[in-house]
Amino acid sequence: MNLSITLTVTSSPPSSTAQIAQRIADDMAHLHHRLGDGVSDELGISISYLVEQFAQLAAAYRLPAEREKQP
Fold it and tell me: How many whole angstroms separate alpha carbon 65 and alpha carbon 29?
């Protein structure tokens, strides 16, 4: 099974990009929770790793004031 995820945001403000990336991270975490570790084996990539990467992307695009509010 091939998996391709492309996130292209060209004219959105950084806070919008952060929201999109965080939403993807949250949705993937929910999917991983529901489907278990077997889905990572099927896809050939760790879903936990992808969740972490999108969460880091979201954190990088958050405004400084928003970063202080996040755990």
Answer: 25
